[in-house]
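Fold this sequence, please.
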Amino acid sequence: MNRRWFANEELQDRFSRFVIVYSYACKSMLRGKSLTEEGEDGPDLVKRGLLTQQELDLMEGVPCWQPHFCLDMLREVIAQLHMIPGGKGLRMDDTNKIHGQLFRCLDNTLKHMNDLIGSCVRIRASGLPASYDAITMTSFITFFLLASAVWSTAIGWMTPIVVFLASMIIMFLIVMGTKLVDPFGSDKVDIPLECFCATIEAQVHAIDQRGKSIIAVASNSKKAVRPLAVRSESKATFHIPRLA
């Protein structure tokens, strides 16, 4: 939308940049970290030109959730569009009927992005309790110690084999539960947040490039418009049998 409707190219770029940074900030928040911490993407975002070092330092220094900082920067872009005299921030001036509707659409989108931050906070806060491992391991050891004594009277020398197979299955379930305590980490079994962020970044760049291409094609089409060719007759592309 910013490439299609914003008239200022600098504001177009800034809006796209912080949409991308928003996704990386949400990833860091889900991990309980900051973009500037080791293993996160802050320095890489600066190297790729998506953030300036000043913006990253300001984001780190402001005591708030970093995705909210990105939303504030997006709102600032919209505010600067409003402040351009004569409503020239968009490609149509303020006398156009849809001028106000576009700003309302942008504001509703930012409102939805703000709701997503609350959802991320709830997901982060609703994980398994930290005592999960201690409780499950205690139950595991107690059960198999008592079970070994009981099973040995019935199955004799088969007891170690049965205990080993059963304990391997239960240990597998315990490990799965342990990973679910923090599914947003960087382990192989965790949710691939890096892939999600990279996909969002690639899609934003693709949308920006598509917007520029469409605007360029539309501008060239206005300069050389050819009349539509009128067919002298129409013929079917397949034979339709005549019904008796």
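The CA atoms of residues 233 and 239 lie 16 Å apart. Residues 132-180 form one domain.
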